[in-house]
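Tokens as discussed.
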């Protein structure tokens, strides 16, 4: 299994994604999350707590997996 490219459908942040199962995802951020990701931006209003996860990106990954754009092993 290799990492596959994906852009966040909300802000366009570019990541590499590997789905090991429907419940396990590995993600490598390729864009600078502090400038590209709307949940991580330093100037986000209101200020966001950086939890290590972005709900918009998670939704984009799940949608891509459902649509078959990201491979999910059976």
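Sequence:
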């Amino acid at each position: 299994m290799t990492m596959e490219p994906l852009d966040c459908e909300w802000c366009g942040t570019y990541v590499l994604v590997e789905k090991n199962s429907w419940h396990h995802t590995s993600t490598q951020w390729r864009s600078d999350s502090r400038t590209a990701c709307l949940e991580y931006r330093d100037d986000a209003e209101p200020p966001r707590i950086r939890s290590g996860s972005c709900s918009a990106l998670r939704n984009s990954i799940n949608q891509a997996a459902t649509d078959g754009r990201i491979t999910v092993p059976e």
